[in-house]
Amino acid sequence: MHIDALSRRLIDRYQHGMPLCAEPYRAMADELGCSEEEVLACLEQLHEGGGLSRIGPVFEHSRAGASTLVALAVPAARLEQVAARINAFPEVNHNYLREHRYNLWFVLTGPDRPHIDRLLAEIEADTGLTPLDLPMQQAFRIDLGFPLGDPS
Amino acid sequence: MSVCTSPSDDGLTRRLIELTEAGLPLVADPWAWLAGELGIDVDATLALLQRLQADGAIRRIAAIPNHYRLGYRHNGMTVWDVDDAEIARLGALIGAQPFVSHCYRRPRQEGWPYNLFAMVHGRDASDIEAYRNQIRALLGNACRANEMLVSSRILKKTGLRLATQRRA
Question: How open is the CA angle B65-A66-B45, to the nearest 5 degrees?
Fold first, then answer.
């Protein structure tokens, strides 16, 4: 989608955090030197175009339970079937196809590690494929986004 | 969550998660809306949000972009086999690069020698190749092998739904 200068500034400035006060869009408008209406219209337009997924709190996942990154090496002919099976798990919140022998990459999230272990066993039994289990050991950077930089 | 300071906070926090995890409504005062839904006043709502953020239960309160829809269609998961003695220092260095959105240490497994993961995003394939080269230069001799796994399709992407899991 096309994004204008104000959208770009909004995202660059507030993807890491926004003012926590009453009428936050007025505070953002003051910082950006525009009106509150312009900020809201801009966010609405971004949201409709899909460029803004949401506004609000990001909760710390690891507090809520356990998670791991999983990879499967799926034969090309079985890809659609296995991907559909994996997506059917409510515990799967990201699933990406990647160009590698290990071509299916997804995140499993559950209330505790035994729950994850049961899911991994279930996946192996269902698909006949041995999952690569890659839980996070240390975070050096978590989803802080990145600057959009200059338009090009 | 177990981070709350009083028993009444627990119930409120659960409600707050349910109400906000899919995003706030785009209204002039979203916190007044949330306060109304929670049945408390705006100041108490802001104070609760501040406490949850200070406790680490809320990572950030922000406008969350969808970079893919904004034109950053190329994402590469770069994976590196880094000397264990050096990984704490080098992981922090790679995580601090502005073009890296996620950077984690993960365990090596049989047939998988890589212990450092760094995600890079770009508008085209040459962007992410350049980022990979920058990481390679930063790691130098401490890195024995690396690969970049480019994503060719997003098969599922939903935000985490704590509320749904709790009900399940």
Answer: 55
Prediction ipTM score: 0.78
Chain B residues 76-135 with CB within 8 Å of chain A: 77, 88, 91-92, 94-96, 98-107, 109, 111-112, 117, 121, 123
* Residue B134: HSE in the Cβ half-sphere, 13 Å Cα cutoff: 17
Task: Work out how many domains chain A is built from and give that number.
Answer: 2
The reply to whether B132 falls in a domain is yes
* Distance (Å, whole) CA A40 – CA A37: 5
**Domain co-membership, B79 together with B107:** yes
Tell me, yes or no, if B4 comes closer than 8 A to chain A by beta carbon. no
pLDDT (0 to 100) of residue B44:
96
CATH number at residue B141: 3.30.70.920
Structural domain contains residue A18? yes
The residue range of the domain holding B114 is 74-150
Q: Average pLDDT by consecutive 10-residue portion of chain B (168 residues)?
A: 55 91 92 96 96 91 88 91 96 94 95 96 92 97 94 71 40
- When CB atoms are compared, the residue of A17, A87, A140 closest to B92 is A140
